[in-house]
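S1.2 Input.
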Amino acid sequence: MQRFSLFFLFTVFVIPLMAQETINLPVTETDESIKWNKKEKEYFSEIWQTEVVTNVIKPTMQVFQPSREKKTGAAVVICPGGGMYALSIESEGNQVAKWLAERGVTAFVLKYRLVPTGEDATKELNDDGERVLLKAGNVLPLGISDGLNAIQYVREAAEKYEIDPNKIGIMGFSAGGAVTMGATFNYVPANKPNFIVPVYAWMDVIPQSTTPADAPPIFIVCASDDPLNLAPASVKLYTAWLKAGKSAELHMYAKGGHGFGMRKQNLPADQWIERFGDWLDNEGFLE
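S1.3 Output.
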């Protein structure tokens, strides 16, 4: 009897935080010049010391739903980073989704289309040098299309997931930040995000764009010591939103490096997601 009770408690409290559904997204933009010769693969990268997903050919989302009594009506599409070569699926995807679900936010971890790679995409990313920008730039429009389709899917399925269609955001890390900002510069009413969260966004790969006239609120995170020198682009985004008279919040940590996601480094940057939770609350998305 005691064993049954413990199992029941484990089931009740853990299952709501696990991915409960896989959604296949439509493919509305293609590029015949990009050929995937390998299947989608998930493995532990020795270089990055984390789980990664590579060779995403068909975009999908994993859904993490809060327990019903916790639901706030807010939702976030999460775009993990990885240079458009891979997805850091745990610290920039699943762990973020679980944190949000615990606080009543329905989370959708997006696997957007990536550069075709061989056995170890993280090694290829390191070895490709100047070719990285070209390869990533070629596939980015597909990733942006996947991000926009993800937002539209969540809005159209709002009733199913008990989501407020006016509380749907998109968050992205590094290359996922490029997907996030690409979606921001290219939305139409059906797939417009209600808030955006670029985390150490890789802006060099995105063509120069202007702040939309109806730009949503933005929450920006980066570290001044980012070794990829991404901090100035985050400041530029913040300044652009301010100049346009739009709501903006910037958290620039003195130390944190790149790709910290949900990793704990015993630095103030470890608390960025708590600040994001505060911001969601202050902006009224958790009411």
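S1.4 Remarks. Residues 74 and 167 are 5 Å apart (CA to CA).
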